[in-house]
Amino acid sequence: MSYLQLRSRRFSRMVTAEPTLLLHRGEVLHDALRRERLTEKELDGVARKHGLGSLQEAEAVVLEADGTLSVVGPDSAGDGGVLPGTERS
Length: 89
What we know:
Oligomer: single chain
Radius of gyration: 15 Å
Strand content: 15-25%
Mean pLDDT: 80
Structural class: alpha+beta
Number of strands: 4
Distance between the termini: 38 Å
């Protein structure tokens, strides 16, 4: 499969997952949640596991390519340049 990924950009895009931004600056991106079949309650649970009291305290929540959820706290967000689907401020 890796041979095909190297040879065909189209095939590579079909089989390679991209990170998906689910929450940005405390605001839930509902379209992205629906597309990824996740709920706000699941995001709440991830925020609690990362020591945050609520989703509004998170700078971002990202569904990574491997299926894990990453939480970016307010102190570690920087300029947001590494978040998928965002531009640097």
